[in-house]
Amino acid sequence: MSPFTIIFFGPPGSGKGTQVKLLERFLKEHDPDRRQVSVSTGEHFRAIVNKETYSSKLMRATLERGDLQPEFIAIWLWSGIFIEELKGDEHIITDGFPRMPLEGKVFDTALTFYQRESPHILHLKLTEEQAIQRLNLRQTKEGRADDQSSARGLRFKLYNEKTLPTIEVLRENPRYHYHEVNGERTVEEIHHDILKILSLS
User: Domains (ranges, CATH) in the chain?
Assistant: First the structure.
């Protein structure tokens, strides 16, 4: 098995994190000798927000509004992980970034620098109504600040206005393999579809 570079996209509530974990588990079982570097900017943002610094306070307010963190923080975060952790022969899985056009351009330079050939974009698609139902369930279970109803409208607005154009920029790049995934099915069905897309089943 060759090393994969896999970029997960999808609106809030699309289940990206769940699918990332399932794919990580599959790759660990079927390619146990290869390292994995998985990066979720959302998880790292939430970890920083829980600290007591000036930056954390500003980021917490941004998170509670449902707004996107500024590009410089996102780029600093995942760039640092790449610089410290990449060794050249690992699977790379990203969850939900790049989210804005500038970040997308920088991200592409990183993949070029690290000579990551043929990255796969997995775009989980579902209706906003279905996504909101899932966010309601997640808010009940986890209580995430960015899942609160007051923040949802802005999150979907920013996804449509910022992230979708970023996806299109990468999609138009011939180096990337773009795949749409029906995200309205069960977790198991989506996972099976992803394995099929990646020729892993």
Answer: 5-197 (3.40.50.300)
